[in-house]
Structure formats: C-alpha cells, structure tokens
Amino acid sequence: MRRIVALITLFLLTVTLFGSSSVGVSIGLFDVWPKSVSFDQGTFVQSGVVVGIAPSWELEAVVMSEVTPNPFQQLFGSIGTSFALMGPVYKGLDEVPPYANAYVGAGIMGNIRDLSAWGPFVKITPLSVGGPQFKVRERTLTLALFYNIPSNSLTFYWNLFNLDFF
Amino acid sequence: MKKGGIIVLLCIICSSIPLFSRPWVGGYRVGIDGYVSPTFASEEYWSVAITTNLLPKTLYTPSMELGVVLPPIPFDGSAFFTVGVGTTLAVIHNHPLKHAMRRASAYAPSVELLWYISFEEARWSATSILVEPFTLHFSDKKVSVLGFFALYDALESSWGWGVRLFEISHYIW
Fold this sequence. Notes:
A: 8 strands, B: 173 residues, mainly beta, 12% helix
C-alpha cells in the first residue's frame, strides 16, 4: 500500500512540476487473456487520468476494477508513460497535432488490495484518433504484456478502447 | 440554355434529397457483457446482433434484433442465440455532454427485453431486461455504456444480473 501511495504522490508531483495544461479523464474497457494467473475471470473496466508532460510524452494513472461477477473484488492500479509515434500531441492549443496517432508505453501495475501481483508492463496502441485539441481522443485496441514478479508469469491484456476527455 | 441548366440543377437537387432525409432502418450492434448467473460463465461475453427500427422516422422507435452472445476466445463457455425487442425511453438533445462530442448527439436512454436460446441445448435458457441509462445517439450510430441486466435463468430457475459494459449500434441501411 505504501508503494502505491508513493507512486501516486510521485505522479502528482511530476504533473505539478511539469505544469501541464493538458489533463484528461480516461475511461475504457480492460480485458485479460482467460488463462492469466494474475487475474481471475470476469469483466473489467478502467478509469484514470492522463497528463501531457512533453509534446510527445504523456503520463497516465489508471485503476482497473472488476465489474462482474464480484464488483470491485479485483482492483489493480497502474502508472505509466506513453510516447506518440506519429507526431507531437501536446503542442499547445494554437497548433493542431496529427488527428491519428499511435503510442508505445511502459509502466508498472499491481493489485491495489494486497500487492499479490505487481510488476512492469509494456503496451502499444496502434490507432488513436483525436487529442486535447479535439476535446476527445479514442484509443483503440491497446495490446499489453504484464510481467507479474511474485508469480514469475506473463499476462496478455488489452483495451478494446479508451476514451479520453480533455 | 440557362433554363435547361436550372432544370438539370433542380433535378439533381431533388433526386439527392431522399439520400439525406431517408431514416435509418437497420444495422448491426456489438456489445460486451458480463453475467452473474449459473447458466453463464463468469468471463466476458460478446453480443452481436442485426437490429432494425420499426418506426425509423422517429428516435423513439421500437426496435427488434436477432443475434448471438458468444464467450471470447478460446470459446469454452456457453453460447446463445438471442431475440430482442426494445425502445428508446427519452430523447434529449440539450444534454450535459453535448459540448464534449465532436458530432451532434442526443441523450437517449433505452430499455430492451432479450430472450436467450442455448446453442448446445437448443432451448430457451434465459430472459433479461436490459436498461441502458447512459446512451448517446449520433444519427447513424448509438453508443451506450454501463447498461444493467436483470436476468431470469430459465435452466436453473433462478434470478441473476449482468452488466453491458459497452454497446455500439451502427445503422447502415
């Protein structure tokens, strides 16, 4: 729990230091490969905050929660950073960035309740449309790999879509 | 010549009016569901259907649909055919999220009654009522998040519930 609090504090400090003006609220779907040892079967949603820290870089803090069969029973959190591959996204409101983009990212995630599962993840978002200047961004089919350090296992997960409201 | 040109222009305009005024009659719908009931697995289900509007000239149209509810890859859960009827409950154009959307939208909560027929046993397995309070209508598309099912499991004679995490309907006819 201390680690999670420390990470959230670090995230907030970073946001404050960079003084970013592009902050978005994110909601989306979260799906896990059924054979994963890190997650029990069920349906999940995620929500979070995304912050532009440099023209092509953003920070994201996300909470993933089980919806069915046991709401909030599995609760994961992640903090990560992403890089825009097709061009800068956070250029200021007077300059229009590319409408479509793709992202690669990495970070750490873990089970918030007991840290029984935690470790690094990498992800790729092949298609994203919109952005801060367009008020809304839709990120589609994010694919990710999570390495669970305590159980020494890999989990494949994906976000069918994420909607970011800036 | 000038008169002929005007007539041709009028003909083009009149013939193109039906393209823009024709209401949407039907399309497909994709949803992502989770169920809490003995007949359904705890994993995520994909719901795919062909849907049609019975009164397409109004957004309050009742609709009918035929579809399937499938477990995800590797398809090791139960699968179902579905038959459904539904209707829009309200249409509010001046909604709080309208400035956050790129396209013109209307808040349009809806309700739907669904019957499930098991692939394996070929018989009625469940009935659900789906309430979708968070639905936005964008002319040829309808997007809904966090719909709630109340479900009667006919195979186990018990009540259950579920959530439709996300649904998109795309009208193509």
